[in-house]
Specification:
- The chain is mostly helical.
- It has three domains: about 55 residues, Ubiquitin-like (UB roll), CATH 3.10.20; about 70 residues, no CATH class; about 260 residues, Type II secretion system (T2SS), domain F (Receptor-associated Protein), CATH 1.20.81.
- It is built from 15 helices and three strands.
Length: about 400
């Protein structure tokens, strides 16, 4: 929650600004740690049923650009406080602008860069914060921000390409559903009247279509309500750990699509691990962060179990070996990297390999989707029309 404050700083000068905190008490405590004497503090905006701030977000592309800017400025030996103040004034995204302003205030109050960024998990992930912390400890923040920009750029490219490949079939299917509903509610009822008035025997498939049409016409609102309620409870269930696990298992089990998702997650795991190990982050911590950002409950559970095995003395390849979702080729490559002391380079090679696999799978999927969707739509509409037009043709033939 955002709070506006007015205060007196250590030098006796009046200060005004905003601070993000979970409660007013937390905001007051944070300001007092900076040495401020608070003269007033209020919520930045009143709570309402519909709050546009809930929909504010910072895109991955914004964070990529920000990371490249920070890398250049740190390489030029500009002070961290000046960097974040400068970038906060230049940011076009309002949420990013406020976030960078609060980060600069925290740094001015004595916080490390990593701790200041960690207070904004909606913008900076645990992976990002851990990388920055390692850069502070090693004195190589310019290199770390460059690593982060390159990593986020690769992740954005692969993820967006996979996501965009699935938008087209989703749009086509939604269009198909809308067309079918319109036909069942507007066209089929009029044709049904003609068929019934003819008095001839109605074919089995035609009776099924007419029955479905009657349901939509007479109970359409109830059907819509049931779908909405069912969708709501399904969404609530998916938000639970068990529901998310089952949904992620379903993603991996769908033919072809599951293979695409699997390669996407494997690419993310290898790229995360390579980036963190190359920056000097310890193996266990790298695995913990990878589990947090992999965005799939199945792989997250496997990595969490692998962490316990690594802590118990197993190698990374041995800890990942029992899980069928992790290919044997990846296990063998990791084992070679461990034995040769080149694990980071091996993970980099694996990341590139699975990124190419994802790109190839997406290109193949895009090439197959259009003809498959045309066939699917043609069959659906054709069966629907044939079931009602054939009886009408029989009527016209008998006249």
């Amino acid at each position: 929650m955002l709070f506006n404050y007015s205060a007196i700083d250590k030098n006796g000068q009046a200060q005004q600004g905003s601070i993000d905190a979970v409660s007013m008490e937390a905001a007051v405590a944070s300001l007092q740690r900076r040495g401020f004497i608070i003269s007033g503090i209020d919520p930045a905006e009143k709570k309402s049923v519909f709050n546009l701030a809930l929909f504010e977000r910072v895109s991955m592309r914004d964070v990529v650009v920000l990371s490249r800017q920070m890398s250049t400025l740190f390489e030029a030996q500009v002070s961290p406080l000046r960097i974040f103040r400068m970038l906060s004034t230049e940011a076009e995204n309002k949420l990013l602008q406020r976030t960078l302003g609060e980060v600069s205030s925290d740094i001015q109050g004595g916080s490390t860069i990593a701790n200041a960024l960690a207070r904004h998990p909606k913008v900076f992930s645990p992976f990002y914060v851990s990388m920055v912390r390692s850069g502070e400890e090693s004195g190589k923040l310019d290199e770390v921000f460059l690593y982060l920009a390159d990593y986020l750029d690769r992740t954005y490219e692969v993820t967006s390409k996979a996501r965009n490949a699935l938008i087209y079939p989703a749009f086509v299917i939604m269009t198909f559903i809308v067309v079918m509903v319109l036909m069942l509610t507007l066209v089929i009822p009029r044709l049904s009247e003609i068929i019934i008035e003819s008095g001839q025997e109605i074919p089995f498939f035609t009776r099924i279509v007419m029955g479905i049409s009657n349901i939509f016409v007479n109970y359409g609102v109830l059907v819509l309500l049931l779908v909405a309620v069912g969708g709501f409870f399904l969404w609530r269930y998916i938000m639970t750990p068990q529901g998310k696990l089952q949904l992620d298992q379903l993603k991996l089990s769908v033919p072809y699509i599951g293979d695409l998702f699997s390669k996407l997650y494997l690419s993310r795991i290898a790229d995360n691990m390579n980036t963190m190990l190359a920056s000097g982050i310890q193996m266990v911590r790298a695995l913990e962060i990878t589990a947090a950002v992999v965005d799939n409950a199945v792989y997250e559970r496997h990595i969490q179990e692998a962490i316990a095995a690594v802590k118990g003395g197993k190698t990374l390849s041995g800890a990942l070996d029992p899980y069928p979702e992790i290919p044997s080729m990846m296990i063998q490559m990791i084992k070679v990297g461990e034995e040769s002391g080149q694990l980071s380079n091996i993970l980099k090679t694996l990341a590139k390999f699975y990124q190419r696999e994802v790109n190839n799978a997406v290109d193949t999927l895009v090439g197959l989707i259009e003809p498959l969707m045309i066939v699917f739509l043609g069959l659906g509409v054709g069966i629907l029309l044939a079931s009602v037009l054939m009886p009408i043709y029989n009527i016209s033939s008998s006249i």
